Amino acid sequence: MNNELRTCSGMRPTGPLHLGHYFGVLKNWVELQNTQRAFFFVADWHALTTDFNRTEQLRQNTLEMVKDWVGAGLDPDKCTIFRQSDLKEHAELSLLLSMITPVSWVERNPTYKEQQQQITTKDLSNTGFLCYPILMAADILMYRPQGVPVGEDQLPHMELTREICRRFNFLYGEYFPEPKALLTPAAKCPGLDGRKMSKSYDNGIFLSDEFGSIEAKVKTMFTYPPRVKKSDPGCPEKCNLFPYHELLASPEEQAEIKEGCTSAQLGCVQCKKIFLKNLHSLLDPLQERRKAVSDEVARDILLAGNEKARAFARGTMEDVRRLVKIF
Ligand code: TRP
Q1: Which residue from 134, 150, 162 has its CB within 8 A of the most atoms of ligand 1, so it is best to mutate?
Q2: Probe ligand 1: pick from 154, 165, 182, 183, max atoms within 8 Å of CB?
Q3: How is domain 6-188+294-324 classified at the CATH fold level?
Q4: What is the crossing angle of helices 211-220 and 268-291, to 10°?
Q5: What is the helix (H) or strand (E) element at residue 57, kind and residue range?
Q6: Is 0.85 surpassed by the pTM of this model?
Q7: pLDDT per residue over 246-283, tens digit each?
Q8: Residues near ligand 1 (Cβ within 6 A)
Q9: What architecture is domain 211-288?
Q10: Which of 75, 77, 87 is nearest to 41 (CA)?
C-alpha cells in the first residue's frame, strides 16, 4: 500500500449492479484498494440530478449498492466506503467551485448536450443537472487523488474537473493535484440481446440474481444468430457469448471453445453450460459475501466510512477556505 497514492470514485445508486459494472468498474476498484488509499462513495446527490422526482428507492438502492460492492470484494477495512450526501463538505466545495466555473464550460459539456437531447422521458432542465460536473469535481478534488477510475463515458467530466482544478490553482495558489482518469480497458459485456448490458435495456445479468433466474436468462441469450443448427460452424468473433469466455474462462478453455465452435463440434447449448459453470465460480463467493451484509451491516459500513472520509474532507476544506480567504 502506497500511502502517498490516493484514488476515489463514485457510482449513482440507480439500481442493482450487473456483470457490466463488475467487469467494467468494480474489479478495478477491488484491485486499487490494495495499492492506494481509496475512497469509494454512493453518489446519491448525483442520482437526484436526473431523478429528483423519483426518490422512494434511493435509500434502499444505496444500501443494496453497498452490498454489491462488498460482495464484489471491496473491503471496508482496506478502503473507505461512504455516502456522498453525508459529507456536507462536498456541497460546500461544489459551491465554491461553482464560483470559478464559467457557465459556458458546463453548457458545452458533451455529456450534458447529448443527454439533454437523448433522454426525453425525464425533465433535465434543472440547474442541478447542468452543474452535475461541478459536484463531481468537488467529489474528486476533495480527496486530492492522482487518479480516478472511471468508464470512458465519464471522460468529459474528468476533463472539466481538470480544468476547474487548474483554474482553482491559478486563482488561489497551487493546491490540488490534477487528477488523471484511470481507464479500465473497456471490458466488452454484451447484454442478453446483444446490445450493451444496461439496466435501461432490461438485458442484464445482475450480481444479486438468483441462480435459477440466471440460468433462464442465459438460455435466452443471443449467441451468433446465423448459426441455426449445431452442424453450422460458429464464429466466436461475432458471438455475444464469447466475450464472456474471454473474461471468465482459462486460456486453455477459451482455445477449446474456439476450436469446438468453429468446427461445429461444440453447440451453443453446451457452450452456455461452460459459461454457467464459470459464472458460478465468479458469483458463488460474491453472493455469499453479499448475503452476509444485511441492511444494518451496510448502514454500519457507511457510518464508519463517513467518519473516515470526513476526517480527510475536513482537512481539505480547512486548506481551501484559507486559500479562498473565507476563514
Ligand atoms: N458520474 C459518475 C457516474 O455516473 C458518478 C460519480 C459521481 C463519480 N461523482 C464521482 C465518479 C466522482 C467518479 C468520481 O458513474
Answers
A1: 150
A2: 154
A3: Rossmann fold (3.40.50)
A4: 150
A5: none
A6: yes
A7: 999 999 999 999 999 999 999 999 999 999 999 999 99
A8: 9-12, 43, 46, 136, 139-140, 148, 150, 154
A9: Orthogonal Bundle (1.10)
A10: 87
